[in-house]
Amino acid sequence: MDVLGRYRNLIVLVGVLFAQVLGLAVQVKRTTDSEPTRLIRVWAVGTVTPLEKALVWTRTSSRNIWHNYFYLRGVRAENRTLKAQIERMSLEQVRMSQDADQARRLQALLAFKEQFISRTMAAQVIGSSGSELSRSVYIDKGESDGIKADMAVITADGIVGKVLRVYGSTSLVLLIDDQTSGVGAILDKARLQGILRGTPSGEVVLEKVMSDEAVPAGELVLTSGGDGIFPKGLLVGRVTKVSSGSDLFLNIRVRPAANLSRLEEVLVVTKIDERQAEPGQTGAARAVDILAERLPTVPPKPEIAEKGDVPKTASPGTVAPGSAAPTTTAPPTAAPTTVAPTTAAPPTAAPMTTGSAAKPKAASPEASASSGGAAARKAATPVSSSGTASGTSSGTPANASGTPAVKVSPKPVKAAVQPQPQPKPQPAVQDSPH
Amino acid sequence: MAITYTSGEQVEVYRFSIPATILIPLIAVFLQAWLPLRFPFFSIFDLPLLVVIGFATARRNPLAGLVTGGLIGILQDALTHQPIGLYGISKTVVGFGASSLGIKLDVENIGARFLLTIFFYVVHEVVYFMIARGLVGLHMAWSWPHELLSGVANALLGVLVFMLLDRVKQRT
User: CB distance B84–A24 less than 8 Å?
Assistant: First the structure.
């Protein structure tokens, strides 16, 4: 008894440590979920996050009052700049819509299944885990808002992470720079797939890319869709450094596009639609017609138009149903300005049809190469600023500009038919492989 | 004035009121979770650890120190996605050690507090590192310069935190 009293403190210390180690071992052993500690976590989160929410709400409200009612310096100039920007972007949107239409038609022909972000929910970041070894943040949306585990979390700049744990009114988001996270990623131009992981120091690396591949610094990294969480084509970041790593793989450092250390508002992807592109949505298209669209155009000749075979190539079938009516009347601005750049090079047409089986998002890299990363993001997954997104909404208005209205050229058809073993025209629906 | 006697030395023992005992750790954990969002450099600090050291050295009771350290550590663990116990074990050890050392050393002057904080910060990191690697299997890199620099930064902040704690502690 005397010994117990003398070493009482040490014995208690050993007991407490033993209990915690035992608890730790149980948690590590259970790979499914941390159910045994659920109650502790709920209590802790329930204690801390209300304070964080209140503080964030106060801060946001005071900032909004200041910015919306008092600090209005330079608003008129900014308004002018934004209007000019809208005009520029409207023109760009017309061109990109045409590219997207074309991609959809090709996808329909090849029976691709696409993933569209169909619903998102805006959430505010209210706190972090407070640990360098647990790179995660709390958002102010939880189970009551329809948030579920494994939902993707993004910003307008790029992906952020995934929902790891869901509580009543808050959720824990695991960031992509945490060492326990993993994202299926693909290099934009090289089309090499890998796994994006965080490191203990907070850097992001792309793993599992063979060392004999050439990966230039500065290349964009997109989601590959292989992880089942992030839809394909979302911007992840940019390659900053490539070096030969251990084993057979490259050591590729990636700088995330989203600023993970200063997150304020994020979008939780609450619904992803996976659907097959339907030819009916974009028009009864044939491969030859689509290839013909991409080739240089020739002004329509009256005598050719009278013949029976030529209108087949310029048939209304090449145009989306909603925009098919004015096929022979070239739109005043859209056709010359937008069709010409995209159809300038015939060689781009052939790989699009032949190689797209392995690269369903072939349109995105082209868009990014021509108009930057932001354009690529929009082309890949059209997330609207309002928090909702639609993969098909951009199609119809763009067709109103009448993209394929001037596609009357026998020569492109010959060029397009050459690689085809069966040049015999077939009904559009039968062109779609299964 | 209540004074306890340990090994023939006079050591003052302090206590904290119940609201202070509950609220101060909560505020520390809250700030630790919230401030890095606004100031990313703040993640180098470990405010709950400073509170554990401050409480332990003031109370000079090893049992109270390890319990306080364990509870604050578990609370901190619960906010992360890692298994609960990583911070819990580390802070239990620090709480016990700081209160045990507080009996033997004069921890009222700034220099002693500064050195004590650096020492226990390194102890905390070593224990955390060992558990994270050995038990949980996390990949971690150890860097002495980084740890020492973080220790100095925490010690500087610790001196301020201890001055604030001095204002709320009461003599037993």
Answer: yes
